[in-house]
Amino acid sequence: METVTDKLQIVLLGTTGSGKSASGNTILGDKVFKSHVSTQSVTLSCQSETRIVNGTEVTVVDTPGWDCNKKNEKEVALELMKAIGSLNGPYAFLMVIPIGSFTLKEIEMIKKLRRQLGEEFMNHTTILFSKSDNLEEKSFDQFLEEEKGELHKFIQHCGERVYTWNNKDKSSVTNLYKMLQDLKKTSKKRCQSTESSQQDLITFGEAGSSDVDMKRHKRDTSEPMDQANEAVRVVVLGLAGVGKTSTIKTLLGQSSQNERNTPQVHQTSWSGMNFMLIDSSGFQKVNEVESVVSQALLHASPGPHVIMIIIRAGRVTEEILQMINDIHACLDDSVKHTMIVFSRKDDLADKPISEFIKECSVLKNIVELHGTRFHALNNKDIKDPTQANELFQKISAIYHDNNGDFIKETSREHGREK
């Protein structure tokens, strides 16, 4: 029996027909993933297989093609999050691209992955060019030298970690060991979470220019999160009068009060977790976003884990969308820490919030930006414990899925942390 000296977990990424599954079989040296020529998508759900390769316990997770013709984009994204959530410990991405087939389809896939997984996903990605027989008389080095444009940029962003082989000709697989070493070096560390990461279709916003820049502060993920001692810091933002304070009172199980002009901090606990709720002053105008956000963050030191943006159901305008964009412009890499709460759900009468979203293009844009992280609240029944439980569940899911990372304020002007 071969001695196991190390472990490696690989998540395969690519479009339908790219050779993902066949490459997984090549890596593991076994035909464990279904792979054959077809006009229809073959891989429809995540499949994980483990084999010992050169003394390393290698786990390969095959995922549906991003352009799977039997699932919609949201279902494919959920499968990917399910795959990542099933892993125990560090993992790396292997992007499989057929030589000569880098098209707009692949470019769009990469853009969506960057939004879903964050810019840093490329730090943990190695590129495998499949179907090397497409090179014909050209060498792989020549192919790389001639590539310009988006593919060249992508290769650069991935640290020029590129390999090629032909899955039909195993003699071409001469660099498997080196590729596995690259994948080990770039593996992304993670903490196990008690919540399922498949709840969130994480969409990352673009950071805008601002005198104040908020950066995610990375926890040391080699240490487990101490939920008993660390309070989950939640900053609540929104226009004045939309129901920020009553939303917090719902979480606290208290009677509603008038909206505040200055931030106020509340402490509470739920399901063994501690929470710090920061009720910010409401924006009177959209152009007040930066000053209000900065003021609220002073009360969430060293930085918030979750941002809750409150919007009044039934009153969604382009101004609201601008406000949300401005908030994310102040908070770099903040979208995956953010959830939208629709207050005054009772204003919709019997209409489900999902139906209301479908009817409003601005609202659809807001929801798509934040994936599944939204909640509708009945402010006339704030003492209903069911509402508080549902909201706490979603807040804690964001905290867990970000491994306890929080947003930390830094000064661009001085180039150092405040």
UniProtKB/TrEMBL annotation:
Residues 5-206, 229-416 form the AIG1-type G domain. Keywords: Cytoplasm, Endoplasmic reticulum, Golgi apparatus, GTP-binding, Mitochondrion, Nucleotide-binding, Repeat. Pfam families: AIG1. One of its GO terms (molecular function) is GTP binding. The keyword GTP-binding applies. InterPro entries: G_AIG1, GIMA/IAN/Toc, P-loop_NTPase. Gene3D superfamilies: P-loop containing nucleotide triphosphate hydrolases. Its main location: cytoplasm. One of its GO terms (cellular component) is cytosol. It is found in: Cytoplasm, Cytosol; Endoplasmic reticulum; Golgi apparatus; Mitochondrion. Exerts an anti-apoptotic effect in the immune system and is involved in responses to infections. Belongs to the TRAFAC class TrmE-Era-EngA-EngB-Septin-like GTPase superfamily. AIG1/Toc34/Toc159-like paraseptin GTPase family. IAN subfamily. This is GTPase IMAP family member 8.
